[in-house]
């Protein structure tokens, strides 16, 4: 490993089947401390199965997993307890001292200090996910597992959440495993992008693009296209010269001005 | 309907609610019927007579002392039944083994009409306070059990899973996740239990009572005092209404987190 001698997470020969369906087959994976991994894959490829095994939500697998004890999960749905306020939700399972010292800081970090006493039912989707992130981060995890946490958010909220997650990760440096089906999201945030296929890691791609990343960057576009092809989506090669019809360009410019 | 907001300076003079008109007409007809001898007092006392008797019974303290006895029976039965039903529901709700042990016998007993057990209870427990309280407790335990059990089973497993990953387990999980999640069902069960306890109180107090509202009614029957009977019926109704309002107030406090209650 380049960053550290001992990986934060070591997975060896991980297999998991549900009935006759073999979901994960002899999967091997190392995650370095502080490394941000994005895990892509088609529906049913076993992304969430791998995350659940790493998060100790499932132990019906064969093989070995070495992961830090300090793990925290943010789920696709915020999964806040509706009968507890945002502050109480973030502080759940903490000691009294931790609750007193850390919860409000964590809420401030995700920009939710003003909603600390709100009921979860009154939060927007983005606010709910911010609270879920605060609840995960307040535990100061060495491994942060994110299970499609932005999938149900609208596009604008998702962009904000991407920036938030990146800055929180840079501030706290946990190892992160982000399960997503959004290739842009993966390339935007991760140090390494993995593509899961037929129960194994089919693509393991290091993202060398400097942060903060821009989706319009040609390097970004090339990696995006490569990953999409790896996921079985045929897209045309990136254009080497501009063949856009002149008329269309004018329209685009007008929109840009407006 | 016009609202106060639509007419800012509307005069705030007293207006009879429209739904009160027909009951008031019925009471007036009843009073007239009694006055002209159409309704004899031994069949049904006049409303004015009922009100006068009510004040007499309050003045003599007769009503209050017997009311306290009746309330004591109802609340003791309710507490006992709630404890038994709630305890069994927690056992059956939290584990498959508990469900197998508890649920089949409870579901079988539930099919028995509780009122049909009165005679058996008299054989077992005599005619003192015990059969009265146990009858209420038995009747109350079923709605509490069924609703709390369903409530516990209805808690979103995803919330339980999430709470586990954040370090809650055992009693803390029950206290912070499972019981609050089952609270709406439990309160519904409590409302049903209150209705049942009141109904069974009326029945139980027919068993040779020497105090309580039922005793007053039995005594009044022997002397054809229909006014006393009607007063007692009114008190039964008033307490039923009060209890229901009490649970609804409890609901709006305990369930303040629910979306339907946040806005209102």
TrEMBL record, chain A:
Q: Which residues form the ABC transporter domain?
A: 9-223
Which Gene Ontology molecular function entries are recorded, alphabetically?
ATP binding; ATP hydrolysis activity
Matches recorded under PROSITE patterns: ABC_TRANSPORTER_2
Mention any Pfam family matching this sequence. Answer: ABC_tran
* Stored InterPro entries: AAA+_ATPase, ABC_transporter-like_ATP-bd, ABC_transporter_ATP-bind, P-loop_NTPase
Q: Which UniProt keywords apply?
A: ATP-binding, Cell membrane, Membrane, Nucleotide-binding, Translocase, Transport
Domain of life, per UniProt, equals Bacteria
| PANTHER family (alphabetical) | ALIPHATIC SULFONATES IMPORT ATP-BINDING PROTEIN SSUB (PTHR42788:SF17), TAURINE IMPORT ATP-BINDING PROTEIN-RELATED (PTHR42788)
Q: Which family does it belong to?
A: Belongs to the ABC transporter superfamily.
What name is this protein filed under? Aliphatic sulfonates import ATP-binding protein SsuB 2
Q: What is the organism of origin for this protein? A: Sandarakinorhabdus glacialis
The organism that produces this protein has a lineage beginning with: Bacteria, Pseudomonadati, Pseudomonadota, Alphaproteobacteria, Sphingomonadales
The gene behind this protein is ssuB2
From TrEMBL, chain B:
Membrane topology listed for this record: Multi-pass membrane protein
A GO term from the CC aspect: plasma membrane
Q: What does the record list as GO biological process?
A: alkanesulfonate transmembrane transport
Q: Which Pfam family is an annotated match for this chain, by its short name?
A: BPD_transp_1
PROSITE patterns registered for this protein in UniProt:
ABC_TM1
Q: What stretches pass through the bilayer?
A: 74-95, 107-127, 133-152, 196-216, 228-250
**Swiss-Prot/TrEMBL keywords:** Cell membrane, Membrane, Transmembrane, Transmembrane helix, Transport
**ABC transmembrane type-1 domain spans which residues?**
67-247
Give the function comment from the record. Probably part of an ABC transporter complex. Probably responsible for the translocation of the substrate across the membrane.
What's the family? Belongs to the binding-protein-dependent transport system permease family.
Protein name as annotated:
Sulfonate ABC transporter permease
Origin species, per record, is Sandarakinorhabdus glacialis
Higher taxonomy: Bacteria, Pseudomonadati, Pseudomonadota, Alphaproteobacteria, Sphingomonadales
């Amino acid at each position: 490993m380049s960053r550290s001698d001992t990986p934060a997470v070591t997975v060896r020969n991980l297999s998991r089947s549900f009935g006759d369906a073999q979901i994960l087959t002899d999967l091997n994976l190392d995650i370095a401390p502080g490394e941000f991994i994005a895990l892509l894959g088609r529906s049913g490829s076993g992304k969430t199965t791998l995350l659940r095994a790493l998060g100790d939500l499932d132990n019906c697998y064969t093989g070995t997993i070495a992961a830090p004890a300090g793990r925290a999960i943010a789920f696709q749905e915020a999964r806040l307890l509706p009968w507890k306020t945002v502050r109480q939700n973030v502080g759940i399972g903490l000691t009294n001292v931790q609750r007193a010292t850390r919860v409000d800081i964590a809420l401030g970090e995700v920009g939710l200090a003003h909603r600390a006493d709100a009921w979860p039912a009154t939060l927007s989707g983005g606010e709910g996910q911010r609270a879920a992130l605060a609840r995960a981060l307040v535990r100061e995890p060495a491994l942060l597992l994110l299970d499609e946490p932005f999938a149900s958010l609208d596009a604008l909220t998702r962009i904000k959440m991407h920036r938030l997650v990146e800055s929180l990760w840079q501030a706290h440096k946990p190892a992160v495993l982000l399960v997503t089906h959004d290739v842009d999201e993966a390339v935007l945030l991760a140090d390494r992008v993995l593509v899961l296929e037929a129960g194994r890691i089919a693509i393991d791609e290091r993202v060398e693009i400097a942060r903060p990343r821009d989706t319009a960057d040609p390097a970004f576009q090339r990696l995006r296209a490569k990953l999409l092809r790896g996921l079985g989506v045929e897209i045309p090669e990136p254009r080497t010269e501009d063949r856009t019809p002149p008329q269309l360009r004018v329209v685009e410019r007008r929109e840009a001005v407006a | 309907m016009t609202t106060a907001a639509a007419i800012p300076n509307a005069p705030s003079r007293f207006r009879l609610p429209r739904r009160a008109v027909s009951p008031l007409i019925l009471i007036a007809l009843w009073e007239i019927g009694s006055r002209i001898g159409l309704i004899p007092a031994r069949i049904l006392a006049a409303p004015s007579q009922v009100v006068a008797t009510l004040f007499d019974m309050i003045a003599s303290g007769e009503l209050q002392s017997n009311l306290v006895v009746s309330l004591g029976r109802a609340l003791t039965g309710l507490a006992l039944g709630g404890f038994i039903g709630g305890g069994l529901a927690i056992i059956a709700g939290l584990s498959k083994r508990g469900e197998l042990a508890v649920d089949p016998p409870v579901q079988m007993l539930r099919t028995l009409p509780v009122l049909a057990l009165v005679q058996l209870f008299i054989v077992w427990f005599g005619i003192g306070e015990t059969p009265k309280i146990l009858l209420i407790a038995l009747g109350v335990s079923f709605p509490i059990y069924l609703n709390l059990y369903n409530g516990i089973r209805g808690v979103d497993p995803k919330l339980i899973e999430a709470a586990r990953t954040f370090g809650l387990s055992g009693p803390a999980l029950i206290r912070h996740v499972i019981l609050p999640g089952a609270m709406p069902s439990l309160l519904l069960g409590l409302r049903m239990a209150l209705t049942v306890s009141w109904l069974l109180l009326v029945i139980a107090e027919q068993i040779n009572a020497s105090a309580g509202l039922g005793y007053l009614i039995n005594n009044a029957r022997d002397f054809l005092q229909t006014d006393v009977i009607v007063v007692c019926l009114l008190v039964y109704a008033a307490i039923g209404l009060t209890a229901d309002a009490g649970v609804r107030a409890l609901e709006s406090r305990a369930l303040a987190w629910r979306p339907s209650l946040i806005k209102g």
